[in-house]
Specification:
- The complex is a heterodimer of chains A (158) and B (166).
- Chain A is mainly alpha-helical and 158 residues long.
- Chain A contains seven helices and no strands.
- The longest helix of chain A is centred in the middle third of the chain and has 29 residues.
- With 166 residues, chain B is an all-alpha fold.
- Chain B has seven helices and no strands.
- In chain B, helix 3 runs antiparallel to helix 4, helix 3 runs antiparallel to helix 7 and helix 6 packs antiparallel against helix 7.
- Chain B is elongated, with a radius of gyration of 19 Å.
- The two termini of chain B are 15 Å apart.
- Classes of the chains: A mainly alpha (158), B mainly alpha (166).
- At the A-B interface, helix 3, helix 4 and helix 7 of A face helix 3, helix 4 and helix 7 of B.
């Protein structure tokens, strides 16, 4: 169903330029990992605070607000460096169940972070049972680690 | 350098390194665990660095955020180091000649030294943070150096499979 889209991505001039260059793909890939590291760092510091293990001297909302700016900038960098990697290998990814799995997990993680996690992080701490932020922190951590791990495994089993 | 080759040849020929190298799961799973643990470790280090340089988490006192993040940084540093050593043991003859691997090691050592100096010199004067401009300047400098060195470690680490400088 999505094959024409994957073929269009594969045929882009940018995809060809990436395939022709010795350095472009590898350097973009390395910068992607760096951006992912910053993004995951901002997620994990918030998750640790939700779990009650991180910087508990600060409110959950204060940590979430500070991390949000980092998440937006690092997320943008992840996207900018991820798109050319995808288009360059679009036809390989079209057949990869691990890539499909990673994308589903990524969608779930993004949705969860923007909705449930955000609402719990900024909510008045006195109005939530203690298990709620802990559960949200654990689910968030599991989702984002799932995205990271499945992304890495594509290289081997994709 | 060549005197180390027999040791690496011996290491590469061991039953367990051979088994890991030839297994369809051994190397990929160790490498994935390495990436996952280093992403969390370096991610938390970078969060601390961003606080040190004054770019994020400003309402949190430096000493407090450092104290609360440090155990988690260590908890993820251990598995990333263990898996990193295992990866090297699986293919030592390939790695020791790889310039990008050696660059990653050099950046890693420098990042470690920077963290050590920060902990021994600046962090011990934590009571003065927020008041003593000299301590704050040292903390900011350590943060900038750490950001740069960990970024270079990650980038050079990801570039290792592209052995461009043979």
């Amino acid at each position: 169903m999505l094959l024409p889209f994957f073929e269009w991505c594969d045929g882009l001039a940018m995809s060809q330029a990436y395939r022709d260059s010795t350095y472009l793909f590898a350097v973009t890939q390395a910068l992607h990992v760096l951006a992912v590291t910053v993004f995951v760092g901002a997620i994990v510091i918030g998750d640790l605070r939700l779990l009650g293990w991180g910087p508990v001297g600060q409110s959950r909302a204060s940590i979430a607000r500070s991390a949000q700016r980092i998440l937006l900038w690092a997320g943008l960098a992840v996207l900018v460096t991820g798109i050319p990697q995808f288009t360059t290998n679009a036809l390989t990814y079209e057949r990869s169940w691990l890539f499909a799995f990673k994308m589903c997990l990524l969608a779930a993680a993004l949705l969860f972070t923007a909705t449930v996690r955000h609402r719990v992080a900024v909510a008045d701490e006195r109005h939530l049972p203690p298990w709620v932020p802990k559960a949200v922190g654990a689910v968030s951590f599991a989702l984002w680690m799932g995205v990271t791990i499945s992304g890495r495994l594509i290289t081997y089993y994709g | 350098m060549s005197s180390i080759v027999p040791a690496f040849t011996w290491l590469e020929g061991l039953a367990w390194t051979t088994a890991l190298r030839e297994s369809p799961y051994g190397y990929p799973l160790i490498e994935t665990a390495h990436v996952a643990s280093i992403v969390v470790f370096a991610g938390l280090v970078i969060m601390m660095d961003l606080r040190l340089v004054g770019l994020a988490f400003m309402p949190a006192p430096l000493a407090q955020i450092q104290r609360r993040l440090f155990p988690w940084q260590m908890a993820t540093f251990v598995p990333s180091t263990v898996t990193g050593i295992l990866l090297f043991c699986v293919d030592p003859l390939r790695y020791y000649r790889n310039v990008l691997f050696l660059a990653k090691l050099a950046f890693l050592v420098l990042a470690g030294l920077n963290a050590l100096v920060f902990h021994l010199k600046t962090y011990r004067r934590a009571e003065g943070w927020g008041e003593d401009p000299q301590v704050m300047a040292m903390a900011r400098l350590a943060g900038v150096a750490s950001l740069l060195l960990w970024s270079l470690t990650i980038v050079s680490g990801r570039l290792i499979p592209n052995n461009w400088f043979k």
